[in-house]
Design a protein that fits this description.
285 residues, mainly alpha, 2 domains, globular, disordered N terminus
């Protein structure tokens, strides 16, 4: 059986997900075998190379081009819109953390260890915390993750299903790959970034917002740790606790309303959508 009969040139969810799963396992294997900081950025390159190579193989004999996923005719936005999106990203990151840490006991876990890690980071200077792993986490990981979750996965799902379904599925997979403790932290961000991509069709905007979200934890771990502890013993602490509650509620509202509000949004990549629909029609014939 040759490659032409084995693969039919179609882009499918199973092939996209399998390619990324193998890529992530390759990264985990490399970092487990050689736990050296300098390998973290190399592992991100490995993830991209394995994912893209497998996706092209799975879609053989059709030729896949990066332009198919990146050339999306982005919708223009103003500097005011950008500032607003940054504020929403910060609120989402903060509110998601509040929701997780405040109700951690629901899952029989404690948030003490994570809080201690944040406080330990806060005692270090920025230059002490700045290393290859931190830089890769802030700027390298968002590039690879946004290409997979938004440029490829959301584009494909939006071409097959309603935007709300595409957002929920992509955000859930995004959160799943952040592990149990990071699932709820990543879910809100995944929904927000998927919604931004569907509306603005701009992968570079999503990469920038993702970098800002990662940068927030790096720059202010002490503030985040202090704010995540509910206290009711003074007026300032009561105000902070109320702020925590409000930010958590806002994130819940956003999670519910964003997919619904974008239910009629056009697909982010018309060329990819046309190709997928053509593949589906051929498969049905």
């Amino acid at each position: 059986m040759n490659t032409t009969t084995l693969f039919d040139g179609r882009i499918t969810f199973v092939r996209i997900f399998t390619a990324f799963l193998v890529a992530k396992f390759s990264q985990s294997f490399l970092l487990e075998a050689y736990p050296v900081d300098i390998l973290y950025p190399i592992s991100m390159v490995l993830v991209f190379a394995v994912f893209w190579g497998l996706l092209r193989l799975f879609c053989h004999p059709a030729e896949l081009s990066l332009k198919l996923f990146i050339n999306t005719e982005p919708r223009p936005f103003s500097i005011i819109t950008l500032i607003g999106l940054v504020i929403v990203v910060v609120i989402t990151k903060y509110g998601s953390a509040v929701m997780l840490f405040s109700y951690y006991e629901w899952f029989g876990e404690t948030n003490l260890e994570t809080l201690q890690q944040l406080q330990a980071l806060a005692e270090q200077s920025i230059w002490q915390r700045l290393d290859v792993s931190a830089l890769t986490g802030m700027f390298g990981a968002p590039i690879v993750e946004e290409f997979f979750y938004r440029a490829v996965l959301v584009s494909y799902l939006a071409a097959r299903f309603r935007p709300s379904i595409a957002i929920i599925i992509a955000a859930s997979i995004f959160a799943m790959f952040h592990g149990f403790s990071g699932f709820f932290l990543a879910l809100g961000g995944g929904i927000l970034l998927s919604s931004v991509y569907l509306y603005y069709r701009n992968i570079w905007l999503c990469i920038g917002l993702h970098c800002i979200a990662n940068l927030m934890t790096f720059l202010a771990p002490g503030i985040v740790a202090d704010a995540l502890v509910f206290n009711w013993s003074s007026s300032s602490e009561i105000a902070l606790s109320l702020l925590n509650i409000a930010s958590g509620i806002l994130v819940v509202i956003m999670i519910i309303l964003l997919p619904y509000g974008l239910r009629r949004s056009p697909v982010p990549n018309a060329e990819l959508a046309a190709q997928i629909k053509n593949q589906l029609s051929k498969a049905q014939d």
